[in-house]
Amino acid sequence: MGGDKAPRLRLVVIAADEGGPRLCRGCGDPLMPSAKSTAVFCKDACRSRSWRRMRRTRARTEAVTAGARAECPQCGAEWTVGVDRLVSAVYCSPVCRKRAWHTRRARADEG
């Protein structure tokens, strides 16, 4: 399983061979003989998974191309926004987030 809790998918190479059964573009299983001639996925789950994967890949490519960088206010670490961390991330890790919280709390207790 990946970091996003989605199962890792195997890469499937589909040849343009008309002799064998048609294979699903998502999982590689054979398509049902009753499937439409234009069908490329065996079920809705494969189609949805493929669409989400393509959307995620496109977003990451755009983020890297745009070069949007962010810096952790606690330790100064840098990352590419939307690739290494979420777009809404402020801190680089839970450790830095906790350190910042403790620092803010200590300042509030002093004054």
Secondary structure blueprint with pairings:
Elements: H1 44-66, E1 69-71, E2 78-80, H2 94-110
Antiparallel strand pairs: 1-2
Which structural traits does this protein have?
111 residues; mainly alpha; two-stranded antiparallel ribbon; 2 strands
Domains (count)? 2
| CA distance, first residue to last residue | 47 Å
Main sheet overview = 2 strands, antiparallel
Note poorly predicted spans: none
Which whole number gives the mean pLDDT? 84
The helical percent reads: 25-40%
What is the structural class? Answer: mainly alpha
Number of helices: 2
Give a verbal description of the structure:
The longest helix is centred in the middle third of the chain and has 23 residues, at 44-66. By secondary structure, the chain is mainly alpha-helical. Strand 1 and strand 2 form a beta hairpin. The chain folds into 2 domains: 1-66, no CATH class; 68-111, no CATH class. The chain contains 2 helices and 2 strands; from the N terminus they run αββα. Strands 1-2 form a two-stranded antiparallel ribbon. The mean pLDDT is 84. The radius of gyration is 22 Å and the shape is elongated.
Summarize the structure.
By secondary structure, this protein is mainly alpha-helical. 36% of the residues lie in helices and 5% in strands.
